[in-house]
Write a structure and sequence with these properties.
Elements lengths: L3 E6 L10 H20 L3 E8 L4 H10 L3 H19 L5 E4 L3 H16 L3 E11 L4 E2 L5 E4 L8 E2 L16 E5 L7 E10 L1 H12 L7 H13 L4 E2 L1 E2 L16 E2 L1 H5 L2 H13 L6 H5 L4 E5 L5 H15 L14 E3 L15 H7 L2 H10 L7 E3 L1 H31 L11 H22 L3 H22 L1 H7 L1 H22 L4 H10 L6 H4 L32
Parallel strand pairs: 1-2, 1-13, 2-3, 14-15
Antiparallel strand pairs: 4-5, 4-9, 6-7, 6-8, 9-10, 11-12
The chain binds zinc ion.
């Protein structure tokens, strides 16, 4: 029976290009997961969108003297281009600027207000007397109260990494006018997290299947005790507060962005022609939701968003939050073709095939600890793993069938024990790899698939069909037929990781339709199938001067 699976992926700010760390941290794992679940016959909806509110957007806009919407209009299409070229298979990638999103946010706001989970209170805030306005944290600079760094931002010190409160800065100055800000009182809405703390503790305590770092971080946060948090601010860019008398305030971006998961599912349903279709994904307790994010986003997905959902009532809480660690990029490493801009996805995609990047990022995916992205390592992994273990295997077998059997899959009279054992290993690989992908262990899922490729390579070496074909044609026919069957199934097993090249291989194996339609199951290639002329799946790359990803 099909399960319903909602794949939620972090919302990037629409004010910069996507870098490789974000791709490896959230988007690629989400995509592998979604593709696997679709292959397994489950009903999947994968959503995200560009986060268009918040001071990162307005700071960029102010710097350039344009409107926040101009910034969004510039970067949102580039983000969409990354998804398209990198093969991230969203069912909907939208923005937080839609009418539907505003309505959904205001609906949640009003329900929480009605239930006594929002209240107003005044807060000391920095005010720029020259500009005549309150200053969001990022609009204030000053000396870090912790390390003494002179150019700390109001929300964070880039020197010591501490999270700061703008009112604690020493010698604060406004980034708008340079004036010294003064403290003034401002009235805001607060989310009563303290009232939800016990329910959150009880719920988190039951999530034994979460990654250890996610669970421990969340429990630590709850043990320290939650504080009520302001959910509005004195700015003019954002979702309006749906209560009279607050025209000069907007809903804080952290409160609005996570609601995007819900509003995007609703928008997906509207676009699909069945406006109610979002409901089973959010209301049926058997549906599961997965949130793919980087570790810096854990609190918003294991505490804040669940608190909003609990307060609202009747909607599913996250089933899993498989947050990843970081991918680091060392600036001192040897430069190669992308000239130090190798961290930006669009630049990387100009140089390397999407599948080569996907394979490498899965190979080093930071599931349990930080990992390091290196272009020379990407090239070595392409040559020594992707091609040596998998690409050559497919290419060799298809070429030998062309050379010796006119490109037709040979008939088999009977199978020897070693052929039967390899086919059995292939059948079992669907369970082994599927179990890893289903539990968000993408690195080990890939390794389990490659283990089967290694077995197939050993089998070929042992039986040497290139020699056997001269003295025992039936022996060679059995070997090539068996190896081709394994390749056809490895195509499916590897499809979530390298979807473009396996789709090409699907055609090269003379198969109809799409890989997706084959399903997550063992399938033979019928003897007699005519294979198109062989073409290499991947291109060998040079470490010194990359030959380019053709
Ligand atoms: Zn500092």
């Amino acid at each position: 029976m099909a399960n319903r699976i909602l794949v939620c992926v972090a919302w990037p700010y629409a004010n910069y290009l996507l870098h490789v760390g974000q791709a490896a941290g959230a988007y690629l794992p989400a995509d592998i997961f979604a593709r696997y679940q679709r292959l397994a016959g489950n009903e999947v909806v994968m959503v995200s969108g560009s986060d268009c509110h918040g001071t990162p957007i307005t700071v960029t806009a102010d710097k350039e003297g344009v409107s926040p919407r101009d910034i969004v209009d510039r970067y949102h299409p580039k983000i969409l281009e990354v998804w398209d070229r990198f093969g991230i298979s969203f069912d909907l990638y939208t923005t937080t600027l839609t009418e539907n999103h505003y309505q959904t946010v205001q609906d949640i706001f009003l329900r929480l207000l009605e239930r006594g989970l929002l209240y107003t209170s005044t807060q000391d805030q920095l005010f720029d007397p020259q500009a005549g306005r309150f200053l969001p944290d990022r609009y204030v600079e000053g000396t870090c109260p912790i390390c003494g760094y002179a150019d700390a931002r109001g929300d964070q010190c880039d020197n010591c990494g501490s999270q700061l409160d703008a009112v604690d800065l020493i010698n604060p100055r406004s980034r708008m006018s340079g004036a010294t800000p003064e403290l003034r009182q401002s009235e805001h809405f607060f989310l009563k997290l303290t009232a939800l703390e016990n329910d959150l503790k009880e719920w988190v305590g039951k999530q034994a299947h979460w990654r250890r770092n996610v669970l421990n971080f969340t429990l630590g946060m709850l043990d320290e005790g939650l504080k009520d948090r302001a959910i509005t601010r004195d700015i003019s860019w954002g979702v309006p507060v749906p209560v009279e008398g607050y025209d000069d305030k907007r809903i804080y971006v952290w409160f609005d962005a996570v609601i995007g998961y819900l509003s995007a599912t609703k928008e997906w349903a509207q676009r699909s022609g069945d406006p109610e279709a979002w409901k089973p994904f959010w209301q049926d307790p058997d549906a599961r939701s997965y949130y793919f994010i980087g570790k810096d986003n854990i609190p918003f997905h294991t505490v804040i968003w669940p608190a909003q959902l609990m307060g609202y009532g009747g909607l599913n809480l996250p089933y899993d939050v498989p947050a990843n660690q970081y991918v680091n990029y060392s600036a001192g490493q040897k430069q190669s073709k992308s000239k130090g801009t190798g961290t930006w996805m669009l630049d990387l995609l100009d140089v390397y095939d999407a599948d080569v990047i996907r394979f490498y990022l899965t190979w080093i995916m930071p599931e349990t600890s930080d990992s390091e992205f290196r272009e020379d390592d990407l090239i070595r992994t392409n040559n020594d793993v992707l091609i040596a273990t998998w690409g050559n295997l497919a290419n060799r077998v298809i070429s030998m069938i062309h050379r010796n059997f006119d490109g037709r899959v040979p008939e088999v009279a009977g199978r020897s024990p070693e052929s039967l054992a390899l086919l059995e290993e292939t059948r079992q690989a669907f369970d082994a790899v599927g179990a890893e992908f289903n539990t968000c262990h993408f690195r080990s899922g890939l390794q389990a698939a490659l283990k089967l490729a290694q077995s197939a390579n050993r089998y070929l070496d042992d039986r040497a069909p290139w020699k056997a074909v001269k003295e025992d044609r039936e022996h060679a026919a059995e070997t090539l037929n068996t190896a081709l069957t394994v390749i056809n199934n490895l195509k499916t097993l590897l499809h979530p990781v390298v979807p473009f090249s396996t789709a090409r291989l699907h055609e090269d194996l003379g198969q109809q339709g799409r890989v997706l339609e084959q399903g997550w199951r063992f399938q033979e290639v019928a003897a007699g199938t005519q294979l198109p002329a062989p073409r290499p799946l991947y291109t060998k790359l040079e470490v010194e001067a990359p030959a380019g990803g053709q």
